[in-house]
Structure formats: C-alpha cells, structure tokens
Design goal:
The complex is a heterodimer of chains A (296) and B (340). Chain A has 296 residues and is an alpha+beta fold. In chain A, 12% of the residues lie in helices and 24% in strands. In chain A, the strands form three sheets. Chain A has a nine-stranded mixed β-barrel with strand order 1-4-5-6-7-8-9-10-11. In chain A, strands 2-3 form a two-stranded antiparallel ribbon. Chain B has one domain. Chain B is 19% helix and 19% strand. Chain B has helices spanning 9-16, 24-31, 72-90, 145-157, 322-337, and strands at residues 48-51, 133-135, 193-198, 201-206, 212-216, 231-237, 240-246, 268-277, 280-288, 297-305. The radius of gyration of chain B is 20 Å and the shape is globular. Classes of the chains: A alpha+beta (296), B alpha+beta (340). The interface between A and B is large, with 53 and 55 residues.
C-alpha cells in the first residue's frame, strides 16, 4: 500500500496532456528510488474496437448495405450496414462505440498487400479475431482491452498482470538472454528514461491482433512502449510499432491510462478458456454439451 | 495434469523413494552465515525462481510405515541411485535406466517416455523425510471414502477416456489449471515458480498453464468473490510468508488429474513460505476440505531456488491445444468403431 499512499500524498499538478511533455509532474519514488508505477490501471477508450478514428457502427460483423433497388422496401432508401445474423440478437449491446482514434497522425501505414489483408480480417472478424478464442492478447492490445491490468514492481522484474485470460508479462529490468522462441506476449526488456518506463518488446509470433478491426502484424513485430506518469491518477501510454513485413514505416499509438482508485481494488479472474470451449470444441466431440445430442 | 508427463512427480518418486542424511535447511543453518535478505521496503525477500526438485514421495510408502526418517545408510544409497540415474538421463537413456518403470508397470500411467520432460538437469535432492505429508503422522492423505473412489476413477480414466466432449479431459488437459494445492511443488515440467514482490503484494507466476497469483499483503480481507484460485490473503510472521486462501469455486465435478488438488467451496489452504538459505525454502501447506478429506493434512516440502538467470517461459497451452481436437476426434472414431 506504500505505493498508493505515496501517490495519493503527491499533490503535484499535471499541466501536460496525454502525449505531451511530462516535465510538470514528478512521479513518487519506490523505496529503491525508481519512479513508482505500482497499481491497477485501465484504458478508457474504444481503441480495442478500432485503433483509428471511427464513427459508431451497428456491429463488429456486418453485412454490406444493399443498394437502392426495385425490391419492395429498398426502392426509396438504402439501409445502413446490417449486423451479421450471428451477432444480430445482441442489438445495441453488440454495437461499436465511436472513437477519436489513438494512432498518432491518424493512419496505419500498411503495405498494399497488408491493407487488403486488414480489410479481409475485418470482414472475417468473427472467425479470425484471437480475442474471441481467449487467446493471449499480445502487445500492445493487452493494454487497452476493456479490462484492468496491474503493474507490480519487483526489484529487478516488473510484472504486468492482465485480467483478460490471466495473461502475464515479465519485464526484465536486469540483463537477460534472448527468448528461445516466438511468443504471444513478447519478450520484454525494460529500462527507465527519467520518469518513463521504456519497454522493448520482441520475439512475437504472428497470431495476435491490435484490435477488433482486423489490424495485424507479422512475426517481425517490435513494440517500444513508454509508460509516463502524468499525475497520481493517470499516465500516458505510448507504443511505437515496427514491422517491416507489414508496414512502410514505424507508427505510434498514444493514450492515457487511468488508475483504478476503488478501495481494495483487485484484479479478478477472467479465465475465459472455459467460456470458449463450447465455441471451439462443442462440435468436435461425440456429444455436444450444449444440446446433449450426438454430433453428426 | 499436463499432457506430457507425470501424474504427480510425487507419485513417480514413490517408486524411487530417495532421501538424505541432512536436510538442506539444516545444512544452511549449520553454516550460520546466511541472513534473510530484505526488500528495499523491508519485507523478507523471497524473490527468484523456485522449484520442487527433491525425491521425496508425497505419501509415505508402505515400506517406511511407522517412521518419518530414513537411516543414514538408506540416505547414502538413495543419493547414489539419484546420481546414477541423472547420469543416465544426461546420456539420453530412458525407462528403467532412469528410474522409470516400463509401460506396463509405470506408476505414471504410460507417461515415462521422453524422460527429458521430467529432467531437472541435475540429480534430484535427497532428503531424510520419508514423505512430504507430515501430518497426519502416518504420512498418508486422509481422503474421504468418496474422494478415494474419485481418485481411483481419475486414475483409471487418465489416458483412456472416454472422451465424448471437451468436459471429459481433466482440467489440465483443458488448459485451465491443475489447482493451487500443488502449484508450488508440481515437479519439473512447468513447475517453475517466479516470486516477484512489490509493496503490499507477493506475486507468484507458475509456468504451467500460466497460473498466476497476485497475493495482497496489505491487511485487506478476502473479496468473497469465488475464483478458480480462490481469494488469497497474505501476511508476514517474522520471516515467514503466510497465505490463507479461501473462496474457491466448486469444480469438484470436473475431471481432475489428482483429486487432492481439486477446489471446492469448502477448501481452505494455509501456506507457509520460509526461506532457510540463499537457495532453499521450507514450504508447508495445510489443506482443509471436508469435501475431500476427513481431516486437515499438512505437507512439508523443500523447494529450491534456481540460478538467477532462470526464466519462466510462456506456456501457451490453450492457444496450442491440438490435443483437445485430437482426443475428441479419437473419441468419435472409437465410438464409430464400436457402432455407437
């Protein structure tokens, strides 16, 4: 609790906006003199729906609008895109809230083939998004999923504990060897740049996405994250994404993260493997537990 | 339980049954040179990667009935066997040469293939105790009659099925967890535990299934929200880290590799972590659950700290659970063959 007390005790006013200079705010220090980022944090934005600026839309999976035609009912007007039948019963719950976007400069610089692939991913969202299957979310997506995560600062390791799927990262603040294999959550090496925690993340596989809009990467992904305290209650998160197989240049996302200040707030379990077994395996067994019937 | 290995390493060890003349903790305190290091904020420092790698059976084998310790001669002999077996493992040998039975007599139900899955990379440590279970006095887990039946059923179905739906494999095969009870002493395959401390928290990262416990040590009470890993609440008693965990969800109706690790709503775990030297810890766990046991039982488990450069790697179980698809495909083929 020392961290929270220290943070709450600090009345330093931040004059900087997310993404601006943090010069006006100095984070409290841990007992060993490092900036203290301990706590439970969460993004409050619609980046996980779509990193780019986007208008609200009726569903994550859409049927393209049908044009005006001679069909009765479509003679005078066209519909908006319609929710895919698989998600239609969710109604307004299944809609996509609008967002100003978190990509610095607004555009994700895809190579032409990759831009096409991104569009396919969006169309096939229901089949392809790894979030649906409770797969580990990767980086930076883990940060802005609609679940809290906790920063736990040890003396030479920092643990990032995510609520979603119980995913975890260990940031090595000490010198470590290379990752022996590609990973879902990357291999994280950290250092301090003033008050900013800088994490270089490498050794990804190509199986995670950046959002529910089909934004993706290859196994050449490298992410450089910057966690900069801005006040006792928020920090700026910035991630620069490099992937020469998919993008024409590095690009950056930036957003505030907010401290969860509820007393005794804890990360709770979201062990979603159990939630997706019927989806992934229900049709494969002799018996489908959803129906009690034999599969054909 | 993992798809690749072990029932419990402890069961494997029952067949091998090793110990030593002197516990490592006794050795450490004999030197008198070690003092418990503290974190910068003053808590006892338990950080590092820890693993159970001793050769002590979980329950006391019949041959040692009535005594808690081995003789010096027995210890020396077992030490020699361990060293020989490790040499055999390093030479790439399998089966009886490395202390694993053949398929028919395997104590781990056919999983003794590829011994490297269970290789510590060094001889297992030999201790004097004849069982990890130290209470009750007979060194046996006091299962209720129903739990004994469940354990027998779990062993009989392991690797044999039936596999009619995704609910039939055990919780480990489903990439959920093998439970908190055995997390600290599960054995060599994925049995690494990294402890990271921060002010007010002790976090334990267990490699297998990515099990993770963020344990508050700030005086708060259990949240009351039932979870797979329960609500853990920690405190310091001198240099000992004491954790009480309650509020588990009831998953007694799932298949568990070992009945002793299944959680129910009445499960209560009390753990005591005491570092006894730079690389040794005395870990004790008391397990109370009237749903499975007639009375509480306690295991005293020596665990070892691994070298500083030891890492926990990403155990992406669910993401690569091809075994589930294959088990179910096999189950359907089997049902078709039997004309069902």
């Amino acid at each position: 609790m020392a961290a929270v007390v220290a943070a709450a005790g600090c009345t330093g006013q931040s004059t900087s906006e997310p993404g601006g200079s943090a010069a006006a705010y100095r984070a409290p220090r841990t007992a060993d003199g490092k900036p203290d980022l301990n706590g439970i944090w969460q993004a409050l934005n619609s980046a996980n729906y779509d990193l780019r600026a986007h208008a609200a839309r009726p569903a994550l999976s859409l049927l393209p609008a049908r044009g005006r035609s001679g069909v009765p009912g479509l003679v005078r007007a066209t519909t908006v895109d319609l929710p895919d039948p698989a998600v239609r019963p969710l109604g307004a719950v299944g809609g996509v809230p609008a967002g100003e976007g978190v990509v610095v400069g607004g555009e994700i610089p895809y190579q032409p083939w990759a831009a096409t692939r991104r569009q396919e991913n969006a169309r096939e969202w229901l089949k392809r998004d790894p979030e649906i299957k409770c797969f580990m979310p990767g980086v930076p997506r883990a940060t802005y999923l609609p679940y809290p995560f906790q920063i736990l600062q040890g003396t030479n390791k920092i643990v990032l504990a995510y609520e979603f799927a119980g995913a975890t990262r260990t940031i090595h603040m000490d010198k470590v060897g290379d990752s022996p294999s590609p990973t879902w959550m990357g291999w994280s090496r950290g250092h301090w740049d003033g008050d900013t925690l800088v994490v270089e993340v490498t050794d990804f596989n190509e199986d995670t996405w950046f959002d529910r809009a089909g934004d993706f990467h290859s196994d050449q992904l490298k992410v450089t994250e910057r966690y900069t305290p801005q006040s006792p209650y928020h920090l700026t998160y910035e991630a620069t994404i490099e992937d020469p197989k998919v993008f024409t240049r590095p690009w950056t996302i930036r957003m505030p993260l907010y401290r969860r200040v509820e007393p005794d707030k804890q990360l709770l379990e979201y062990k979603c493997v159990e939630f997706v077994e019927e989806l992934m395996y229900g049709h494969l067994g002799v018996i489908d537990p959803a129906t009690g019937q034999r599969n054909k | 339980m993992t798809k690749w290995s072990l029932l419990a390493s402890a069961v494997v060890m029952a067949a091998v049954s090793i110990s030593i003349s002197m516990s490592l903790s006794a050795q450490q305190s004999a030197t008198g040179s070690w003092t418990q290091p503290k974190t910068p904020w003053g808590d006892p420092d338990l950080q590092g990667v820890w693993r159970y790698e001793a050769a002590v059976p979980l329950e006391r084998p019949a041959q040692f009935q009535g005594r808690a310790s081995l003789t010096d001669e027995e210890v020396a002999q077992r030490q020699k066997v361990e060293e020989e077996q490790e040499a055999q493992r390093l030479a790439g040998n399998e089966g009886t040469a490395v202390g694993r039975g053949n398929l028919a007599q395997s104590p781990i139900r056919g999983n003794e293939y590829n011994s490297f899955w269970q290789d510590h990379g060094r001889p297992r440590q030999v201790f004097k105790q004849t069982s990890l279970v130290v209470d009750p006095e007979d060194g046996r887990i006091p299962y209720t009659p129903d739990a004994k039946k469940a354990e027998a059923r779990a062993q009989a179905r392991y690797g044999a099925g039936p596999y009619e739906s995704f609910l039939d494999p055990d919780t480990g095969e489903r990439c959920l967890t093998d439970g908190v009870t055995a997390m600290m002493w599960q054995g060599p395959n994925g049995g690494h535990n990294r402890i990271v401390q921060s002010p007010g928290y002790v976090t334990i990262l267990h490699e297998e299934y990515l099990d993770r416990r963020v344990i508050p040590v700030d005086g708060r009470k259990a949240s009351g929200i039932r979870q797979w890993f329960g609500n853990a609440v920690g405190k310091w008693e001198g240099n000992t880290f004491v954790v009480e965990t309650t509020n588990f969800i009831d998953r007694t109706n799932y298949e568990w590799a070992q009945i002793l690790t299944r959680p129910s709503e009445t499960l209560r775990l009390t753990e005591r972590y005491t570092r006894t030297g730079p690389d040794t810890m005395d870990y004790r766990i008391t397990v109370e659950d009237p749903a499975s046991f007639e009375k509480p039982w306690t295991a005293q488990i020596p665990i070892a700290r691994l070298p500083n450069d030891t890492q926990i790697y990403e155990y992406a179980c669910h993401e690569g659970n091809y075994a589930m698809t294959n088990l179910l495909a096999g189950g359907r083929a089997d049902a078709a063959k039997r004309g069902k």
